[in-house]
Every structure is written in C-alpha cells, then in structure tokens.
Amino acid sequence: MPATATIAQERPVRWDHPLDPEMLHRDITWLLAQPPFAYLNPDVFRANGSLETILKHDARLVRYEPGDVVVREGDYGSSAFIVLRGSVRAFLVSLWEKKTKPAASTDVWDTIKQWVRNTTSSPNPSNRGNGNRRSRGRDAETPRKHIPVQSVGIEEGKNRIFLQDINAVLNDYQSESLGTGNIFGEMAAITRTPHRFSVIADAPTVVLEIRWQGLRLLRRDTGFRSYLDERYRSTGLETHLRETPLLRFLDDETIQNVVEVTKLESYGEMEWFADFKDVKNKQVSSIIDSEPTIASEGTPARDLYLIRAGFARVSHRHGNGHRTTAYLGRGQMFGLEELSHSFFNPTLQPLPYQSSLRALGFVDFLRIPREAALSLLLPKVRRSELPSIFENLRYDAGGRVVPDTTRMLPETDVETPLIEFLVDQRIINGKQSMLIDLDRCTGCDECVKACASTHSGTPRFIRNGPQYGPLMFAHACMHCVDPVCMIGCPTGAIHRNADTGVISINPETCIGCKTCSESCPYENIVMIQVTDKQGRAAVDRNTNLPILQASKCDLCQNHSTGPACQNACPHQALYRVDTSDSATLQSWILRRTA
Fold it and tell me: What domains lie within the chain, and their CATH numbers?
C-alpha cells in the first residue's frame, strides 16, 4: 500500500460519545422537572447546546443497592453525583488501607494476564461501572476477589465494589447521611483531584452521575453555582475540616462554629494555561508581580488559609524583588505559625505575615478568620503539633520581630534557585515528571526508540525541554496534579485513571479537536494523523483535510514492566519524579549526588 494512500471518513464530533447511550427522552424530561435543574436558566446554555443536550450527553442514571460503593477515598474524581432517590453514607474515616503502587513484574504469565485485563476493561474512568445502569441487573454470578482492608469485609467485582456487611460498617465507623437532593464528588470532579472520602449506598438508591464536562457547563448558571456552594457548605465543608490533621480534635459544636465563619474563596483562573504561556519567558520579578496576591509579607496576619486545590507561591522580599521559598498545594496551610506565635506567648507582639502568598495560575482555599482561629482552633492544639519555624526569630526591645531577609522557610530543603525554576516553569504540577540526568545521558536515543516501538512506531515524548544545571525536564506528559489538558476535552477522551492517576487518551472517543494539545502548558501533547489497520491515512470526507488524534505519554500503563523509555536507558539517566512534592524531589536529588 503506498504511503500516500488515504481513506475518507466522517469527522467525529462531541455528541458521538454520550456517557450513557441508553438515556431515554422521558428520563431527560423527568430530570428537568427535578431540582436543581428545574430552577436553571435554559438560555445560559444555548451556545454549548441546550440543557437537555448536556444532560443527555454528560449524565447517566445509576442504581445502587445497600453496600454498593459509589466513590472510594483516594480515587481520582471525574464525576459529580446527585442523590435522586434513597440515601448514601459519606464515611469520614478511611475504610481502606492506603494503596501502594505494585512492583513491576517481568513474568511472562503476569504480562499476559495484565494484557487481558487491559483489553477487557473500559479505558475511560467515567465508565468504571460501579453500580448498575438502568438496563443492567445485579450480576450474582460475577466472580469477585477479596480486597484486604483494616477490619471491614469488602469485595470487588467486575462491575462493582460492595461491602459485605453494611450495617456493621455503619455502626462501627463515623459517617454522614446524604439523602435526596444532596450532591457529592463535585469538588474532586471540578478540581481533578482524588476523592477525600468514601460514599456507600445504605438503601436502594438512584443517583444522577454528571461527568465533569457537563458539570463545567452547568456551572455557568449562577443558580447552579449557588446550589453547589450551598451543598458544599452544608455537607462537604465539615467533612473537609474534619479530615484536616490539625483539626481532627475538634468537637461537633466547635466544628460547626468554624463552618459558619469559614469563607470559600479562589484566586486566578482555572484555565490558567493561556496566561502562563504568555508570561513564562519573562523575568521572574515580572512573573511574580503578575500573580494574584492572597496575603502580603509584613501585613497583619488576619486569616488562616487552607488550600483545597491548585498551587500557591510562598516568597519573601529579597533586594528589590522576591525570593521563592516554597510552594503549597492541596491540604497545606498558610498563616498558622504567625497566628500561633503570640497565642502561646501573650507577652510577644502579634506577628505579621512573614512571607507573601500568591496564586500560581489558580488556587482554591478556605479562609478562616483570625478571631475564629484564636478562639476555636488554637486553644485545642498542643504546641508540639505546630511547626516551630519561628523559634529563632530576633526581637527588638518592644517585642517586635527584627526582619531577616536571609531567612529561608523550611517547607522545603530544595535549594532556592531550583525551587524558583520549578515554580516559574510550573513543573511543580508534575506527578511523573521525566528528568534526564545530562551528566549520564549520551544522547543514544534508546529511550525514544523504545517508546516508538511500544506505541506503533510513534514516540510519545521529545528528548528535549527546560534545563536546570545538569537536569533536563523532557517534553513528556507529567501526569499533572492539575491536568488542565482535561478542562476543555468535549468527550472525556483525555482522562485520569481513578486508581493510578495516569492520564491517558482514549483513541475511540478522541475527536481530534486539538483542545488538549493547545491547553497543555508544557507542549507535551502532539497531534498525529489517524490511520486504519491497513496504514491508510484518514481524511475528512467533506473537506479532504487530515483527521487528527491527540497523542501523549501514558506511562506504558498497559505494560506490566513499566515505562519502556526508562527501562531502555543503558546509562540510568532517565527518571520519573514527583516534582509536586518537594520532599520527594529532595530525596531524589540526594540519591543522585550520593
């Protein structure tokens, strides 16, 4: 077959891939009469399809029996859930042991079994199948394997996970009941982060699952946004506070008082990648000046910040500019040390913020006022549980702190220039950043060849990228904490594996719209022309233009031996490192230089 041979096809479009192809018109009509949809303004959605179209394409009805697990703590979220009938329980404590990454196996039989599992399971986490869709009955014959947990009997089947004894679990573990009208999972879906708690049906229940593509469109209605905020404050906020380690000691009355005064705020734009591409090559001082300031160094410490999603830069004044000393992410606090400083030693003057906090692209956080922190939180905190980074501060005769611009906050032991490089390039977003040690790399390209041979002749990364000293951060998918490439994908083709966090592209549902490629801040997604099994290039039947498809590194997740590039490197110069965690990065740097 000549290399120039082509085959004409219809170009795929968004509406070709609904979440539930079996959703009926009568289901949509019924949903539109239920809250919150009955109160939404249909005109808001005209530009992206009607409200009916969004529900038909991005939602599905799911039935659960008592004991069925709807979402699991630690799994990455891709959908929100609204209880339509029945009830579920949100567990405020962990039911499962922490999942660990299985060791790679080179056994041939294990490889065959891995291949069978990958080819028989759904590639899209939105279609994991926990629970029964309308057309399916409970399959009593499905073989199940035991999952070891703390003291709860849990079994996993092909299409569901369920608790063997739901009543015992309800009696022994703290949980919160969510009934008709309650929504859950929305924060994990919107921010593309792991679920913070497990939700299990405790009665025959029907929920509406809305994948995040539809949720994003629904949020354009102010009424729906208000609905989400109201539901989060009444159900999710308390859970979020309770699972914060420092606040685990609070009694019910105190936690409710904190909930009442806590503010939900965000800085920056969720689609931050557009502005980042414009500023990333500017001077560091210009970049910092362009970032929204949340709290300023030297100003009174009036609030305690708890980050829910995104990243924030911590910096302090240095010369005529600022020096970056740390970056904070989900679950981390800012302002705690300043507020606790004079609380535990009333003879000292109140301490102003010792650093500035700025939004890196987008950050969503809880803001707890100083008065609430001092009267509700700190009285119940043991001083030994607090960081002691201000023990060596110098004071003047009036008890005021003497500024020390050489001080470096100990949130990280990574050298300041590297921290600034990682922050300014947004490499802090990477969970699996590809680092190449240029002191070891010989440029043999065995890594690129191995990637190509594993992916039908087309490599999925480029051995090039930003450099810091002898470290190169190659243009390969980093499987980000905040994968902005997923934001605009209209079909959910680019998705995150709920268990592993690996971000992949489903070739069956990718329509080649280029949204993910243009959104990726790191230029790690490329567009390739679709070919059929005979090697013929696909072209649009109407325009004769190439039909494209997005391609990126998937960490060779369908191969039990792990990433082919890393395995093929003859000089051990290529590594995958979690650059979102400074402690992990520092550990790797120490091993490298040992």
Answer: 14-97+120-240 (2.60.120.10), 259-414 (2.60.120.10), 419-593 (3.30.70.20)
